[in-house]
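COMPLEX REQUEST
Ligand: PXG
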Amino acid sequence: MNLPFEPQRQTRDYQASDAAHHIHAFVDQKALNAEGPRVMVRGEGLYLWDSEGKRYLDGMSGLWCTQLGYGRKDLTAAAAAQMDQLAYYNMFFHTTHPAVIELSELLFSLLPGHYSHVIYTNSGSEANEVLIRTVRRYWQVLGKPQKKIMIGRWNGYHGSTLAASALGGMKFMHEMGGLIPDVAHIDEPYWYAQGGELTPAEFGRRCALQLEEKILELGAQNVAGFIAEPFQGAGGMIFPPESYWPEIQRICRQYDVLLCADEVIGGFGRTGEWFAHQYFGFEPDTLSIAKGLTSGYLPMGGLVLSKRMAEALVERGGVFAHGLTYSGHPVAAAVALANLKALRDEGIVRQVKDDTGPYLHTLLHEVFGNHPLIGEIQGTGLLAALQFVEDKGTRKRFANENDLAWQCRTFGFEEGVIIRSTLGRMIMAPALVASRAELDELVDKTRIAVDRTARIAGKL
Ligand code: PXG
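STATUS: Structure written out below.
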């Protein structure tokens, strides 16, 4: 292999140099420097290898993005061929190129028929930045420029840039760097933690009605859109009760507020449907996409628009004052095209829906259904969350649930499986190509990590 770096350096050497130059994501850098990060050097299928030669089953698809797993030669070949043919050009200067045209043809053949246009970006954060400007522009074109406010949800996640983190509801992010004007938030539909005495259905409706109350408080004439993840990803893989989305959709339509689904994690087959809003059965006006669009092989995202919005912007909007150097990048587009073809032609999304998804959830219920540490198992397709609980009867959570979940994650690494912790929940989102045997291994190693955690928590 001809790698542009020296792949045989010592782990400690890499770690020292990493500490000298990098600020990592969402971490106390000083503490990480003392510990030293794991150095990942190779990926194949669902597996990763670190610089010590230790192998891990990646139960998180990288960061919820490697739908096809690692090492797919069709994707690397598509990238190489496109680099040879046309490594870069742009969509400024009245130009375009075949890779992006063919990608969009395929993308819209997979999407429901009421979407027609896309603005490509390099990431999910950018997709949501673009969203705010596009939604506001749409209302300007319709003669309602005062419709500017975006409503998001507490504990929602829409990215790390300033406006995207403001749309999101992670307060600790708002505290670091501030908010932007014209953004408001309502509660998340997290029944297990916040549902109290209400049934899930009652709680789902109650949370949705908060949107109506917020719109009335702000004035519908001032509200541009409501943004939410169909299920919360980074916030803990939280599924809303079934009553939630129909009520949200009714409210958005009643008050002429655009319904903006952030499909960055839910899109491209994760739930067994192509897009998560199809699983939950609602019809958003916009979709923010990224991650699984390229299986993470290259950075690419986008904002998908309904025909109604695109018609207004294209036919009546005049100049759209927006553009990114790498929007629709030919190499990323070629990889996305190869990725979507593989997901479609190899029947992978259908396999998640009909075979591996149900298999994973049956297994999880068998293994964790009566586990003393687990109060709830959520998810569908290749997506699951295990909720830690101190008292199942009252749904009382551990005061130190965050630490316990982090410990469980660490046990997972020791056992050779990567699972993610958020608050008191353990999350799994393996590559969509996972076989039944790999799911067996994922659940088996996760059980060992959860059992070890249960012992610390005094539950085993
Ligand atoms: N929207 C959603 C719903 C996301 O999950 C973004 C936007 C931002 O995408 P970019 O490409 O700008 O990162 C995300 C990203 C985690 C985790 O640990 C989740 C994300 C990113 C990093 C970590 O759950 N989601």
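REMARKS: The first strand starts at residue 40 and ends at 44. Residues 63, 123-125, 128, 157-159, 229, 233-234, 262, 264-265, 290, 301, 420 surround PXG (CB under 6 Å).
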